[in-house]
Specification:
alpha+beta; 8 helices; globular
């Protein structure tokens, strides 16, 4: 297991060019849930330096994310625009993470704007289905279907008429960073092997706010981490994540997947659903929300109802820290079931081509009849 810098030093210029081309065609895989177990009272000074670095990093990243979203353009090569105690390399890492956040926000906003324009054009194309401008007669009952964009009016004589409601545009809120995640490149955070006499197998060397000063954080990898990194080069980004229970590490590497199909391979269609996670064009189904998972969702809904009532009571009493309505364990279990279904599908249909279709707007597509 080598770092990207160690690998680059052993390659010639032509080999480095070939290596970069290979990276562009590879997949980036993450090695997650690596706890920094030894960051306890014995390393209080290192924890304080890391916390100070994270606070300044978060401030800089938030400023650039807001700036990029307000400008409408996210550029990772933008010059340093604000004063900071971060080094130029850490400053660049913060800009890079802010660029990714802003690009995601701008893409979502552009997609929502296009869908709004399509819905508005669809609404204008059917003026006979617009609601009347004059007030409705007394005794009318109105029922709104927000998802369908319609309203059903029942007149006093018993007749029913469905009208289209004009689409509305709501400007999305600017991103606000709540989680502390430090995106670090290899020149500011490097994972290295420890010496034989050390108590820990790996050390993470991190640059701090003090110029030229670095701290070594002990890292203990589990067996499944070592199996995943066996024979790999840690040539991806390093993430330092601060949570309530301490600091966590996430590594990444580039993997070149083997090509299992070609133009002559058979094709199979896949539909993503709710009752079954995946359904193929040949009739095979993978994953389901029935059974134990459906019962867990039912219990979760009942629990969230009780928590919602409790939150309302506590809010009236002025309590600021309210219980959360999210169930992280259930969400993680659902993701695991989906992953199992996807892996089972690829195992059974190895060598098949899977065509893809992208919908622009589900509401408009359904109105057009498909």
């Amino acid at each position: 297991m080598r770092t990207a810098r160690q690998r680059q030093q052993q390659l010639s210029k032509a080999e480095r060019s070939a290596y970069r081309r290979q990276k562009r065609q590879s997949l980036t895989r993450a090695v997650t849930h690596i706890p920094l177990l030894a960051l306890t009272e014995a390393n209080a000074d290192k924890v304080a330096q890391l916390d100070a670095l994270a606070d300044e990093y978060q401030r800089v990243c938030q400023w650039y994310a807001t700036h990029f979203c307000a400008q409408g353009v996210a550029d990772r090569h933008t010059p340093l625009l604000i004063e900071s105690t971060l080094s130029d390399k850490w400053h660049r890492c913060a800009i890079r993470r802010a660029t990714g956040i802003a690009q995601s926000w701008l893409s979502n906003r552009d997609r929502a704007w296009r869908e709004y324009q399509e819905a508005l054009a669809e609404y204008d194309a059917h003026p006979d289905e617009h609601a009347p401008d004059e007030p409705l007669p007394p005794g009318c009952r109105i029922r709104f279907q927000m998802a369908a964009g319609t309203q059903t009016v029942t007149y006093p004589d018993g007749t029913t008429r469905i009208y289209r409601t004009p689409p509305t545009w709501t400007e999305p809120s600017l991103p606000h960073l709540t989680r502390t995640v430090l995106l670090a490149e290899n020149d500011v955070a490097t994972l290295r092997h420890a010496e034989e006499a050390d108590a820990f197998p790996f050390w993470l060397r991190v640059s701090t706010l003090t110029a030229g000063a670095r701290i070594d954080l002990p890292v203990t990898l589990a067996d499944y981490h070592l199996d995943q990194l066996a024979g790999r080069d840690i040539d991806g980004d390093v993430y330092l994540i601060r949570r309530e229970n301490g600091w966590w590490l996430q590594l990444s590497y580039h993997d070149q997947p083997a090509v299992t199909s070609d133009a002559a391979s058979p094709a199979v269609g896949v539909d993503v659903g709710i009752a079954s996670f995946l359904t193929t064009s040949l009739g095979d189904q993978y994953g389901s929300f029935h059974g134990k998972l459906a019962k867990r969702h039912q219990r979760d809904r009942e629990k969230r109802r009780r928590k919602a009532k409790l939150r309302a009571c506590l809010k009236k009493k002025g309590v600021t820290k309210l219980p959360s309505l999210t169930n992280q364990r259930l969400a993680r279990h659902v993701r695991q079931e989906i992953n199992r279904a996807v892996k089972a599908f690829f195992r059974d249909y190895a060598g098949f081509q899977v065509p893809m279709k992208t919908w622009r707007c589900g509401r408009c597509a359904s109105r057009r009849g498909g």
